[in-house]
């Protein structure tokens, strides 16, 4: 999560620019202007609703200690683009996905770009469950960490909430739901889903110097532009990979105790309220730990101006966005204290359960 200006999406001028971008996106997203009938189906898509027994089954699949050891801890290191730590984390992400039965299609979008610290190598990781499916429910995060000099006492910036934990949560989602994802992928005929799950791990979200339009969002800017140029389904001249995105769910600044999430966009407010409903249902069944209130994380508020993050290049191309970022930001944001010691296991475990139910209901596994 980048510079200070992102707390309120910058100045009034920047806010106006973002408002105009969102307005243009609403026009772009009008079903009447879509190029293909299948691309319009995102607007009428409705999720299933799990019963109490099914909720218990999905909630029981999570294991925060397993996630902590296998998914998260290998990421709790410096991950500045082009560094050995970045390379190690790339290998960790792809290696974990390759172990799963669902057989993810994994692509690496690598490129070089100038930065205030010279030309750097960046690599986005895109994992698609079923490339044959026309539509994609995208969950995304950024795996890079912001550059800070090593402190006098030898400490480095880890960026646990920003955004090692969100990336570990996506890996845990793929692991915990593996059998259901595999079964859905292997189904044939009319039961085969036309919407699949796609996980995107962005490189270069953070600014190297000061947050600007050119010193930030390196990976998401590159991939969004690329997706507008790649036909989808393959060979179709009228639709692209951008049209394939049902919804872009971005996780950022997650892992501290008592996060607050609000709705940022009207066209995904229905889905935000689904998250509120899932939190309420899991709470009532006693499946959430250290969770005293019915709605502790997802609040029925709407933020006027979007926070700057990796969703912006996709928003500008008309993609519906569900931005799950803790606002206000965690108190450890962009400090050396954004580390493992200040993470809250019950919160992460609870959010995993909520998101696993969300994906199960959206993709209608049960």
Automatic annotation (TrEMBL):
GO molecular function: glutaminyl-peptide cyclotransferase activity; zinc ion binding
Subcellular location: Secreted
InterPro entries in alphabetical order: M28_QC, Peptidase_M28, QC/QCL
The keyword Zinc belongs to this UniProt entry's keyword annotation: yes
Domain of life: Eukaryota
Keyword annotations from UniProtKB, A to Z: Acyltransferase, Disulfide bond, Metal-binding, Secreted, Signal, Transferase, Zinc
CDD domains on file: M28_QC_like
Family as reported in the entry's similarity comment: Belongs to the glutaminyl-peptide cyclotransferase family.
Protein name: Glutaminyl-peptide cyclotransferase
Organism: Petromyzon marinus
Gene: QPCT
